[in-house]
Amino acid sequence: MPVVVGIDLGSTTSKAVVLDEHARVLGRGLTNTRSNYDVAAEVARREALDDARFALLRPELERSLGARAEAVIAELRVGWVVSRSVDRLRTLGDSVAALASPNRSAPPGTSS
Fold first, then answer.
1. CB-based contacts of 103: which residues, under 8 Å, 6+ apart?
2. d(C-alpha 16, C-alpha 45), whole Å
3. What's the domain count of the chain?
4. Are residues 52 and 39 in contact, defined by beta-carbon separation less than 8 angstroms?
5. Is the pLDDT of residue 18 over 90?
6. Taking the model in full, what pTM does it have?
7. H and E: helices and strands count for the chain
8. Do the Cβ atoms of 29 and 16 come closer than 8 Å?
9. Parent domain of 96
């Protein structure tokens, strides 16, 4: 399904929206800008895409599970957030380990 992502970077908050080919809103994301527009754009985009995924999943779960759908969606969202967080922590840990490595070369323009 083709989608378009629009991002509004503000000085305080940044927002993203995912639209389908008929300009219907599928998902939204919101984050603090934190004076880092690249990070804010990526976080808002990722949140909007995640929101769109769950919005697309919801009707099928409601058909299949009825009243239990909301509870299942809530559990899926928690699992998704935990999984994303673990991935980010793993990446951060790898970066810290690489920086702490005695075999690491000095950054360009500095002496070791």
1. none
2. 5
3. 1
4. no
5. yes
6. 0.72
7. 2, 3
8. yes
9. 4-100
